[in-house]
Amino acid sequence: MAITLGEIAKRFGGEVVGDAMVRVGGLAPLDQAQPHQLAFLANPKYLSQVDATRAGAVLIAPADLDKLTSREGRSFIVTPNPYAYFARVAQMFIDLAAPAALMGVHPSAVVDPAAQVAKTAVIGPNVVIEAGAVVGEGVRLDAGVFIGRGTHVGESSHLYPRVSVYHGCKIGPRAIVHAGAVIGSDGFGFAPDFVGEGAARTGSWVKIPQVGGVKIGADVEIGANTTIDRGAMADTVIEECVKIDNQVQIGHNCRIGAYTVIAGCAGIAGSTTIGKHCMIGGAVGIAGHVTLGDYVIVTAKSGVSKSLPKAGIYTSAFPAIENAQWNKSAALMRNLDKLRDRIKALEAAAEQRDSGA
Prior knowledge:
The protein is α/β, with parallel strands linked by helices. 19% of the residues lie in helices and 27% in strands. Strands 7-10-13-16-19-24-27-30-33-36-38 form an eleven-stranded parallel sheet, with no helix packed on it. The protein contains six helices and 38 strands. The termini are far apart. The protein is flat, with a radius of gyration of 28 Å. β21 and β22 (202-207) form a beta hairpin.
């Protein structure tokens, strides 16, 4: 698994400072790395650890390299973004260590004769692929994956165990979908059909057929147990290179712009549009039929009830404080309307007094 710094730089770019023949076989933090490992400096405040590290080499930015007290006997790969470089090298080491997957269809899998499965695909135990589905070159479907009729899975995608993709969906190339995710389940659409009021009220909710699909672009990653609902009539769309964390809910007819990231437990109601390069924090709730512009950041646990067209950072959650202090603040908030009325009355009285003077 060991590889030289020169080979790494040839593959990923960057400049080797020191010995390009140093071999490394993995990555580790600066304070724990051993001579056979590669470390990285992403935050200048840890610069002192570079001088003390035992790592065989360090990924470092040019400006931080210039700040070192000594480079003698040390080796570096110099790159403008050590953190992103580290991520790419880490992927390489994982690929080197992983056993090669065996192409073909497991005997327990159920593949409809009308489905198209590439010969280079890896179809695991108990996978079900329905009629009209297309599974591209190099796709890996782990145990228990369900691919509905007419669904397309793009080349080199990896669906982990128990992923369910309903009928008529499209997953772009190089997607990663983690265990338990559900793509293309029905959107939450019901028409009220009630008559009368109170105890005399009769009727029911009428389910609105969800006949759209889900379209997922290239290089998208979807976390475990995340759900993406199909559209009512048009498709739900996830554009290229979107990264979605675990346990996220995306409602029907949403559109998520390219390169947007969504953290865990966020909930996005139907017909919402999120722009490109947005960042949605954990447990954010976004109401339906709103639009977020490009480069919008919503911090954790915020609630978004109206459109945010301008780029920027938005927060609506109240930071955690001691319970006793929160109770006092809550009591004040409950009486804000009364305080407002008193202030208006005092202002009116002051104006009347001043005019009389």
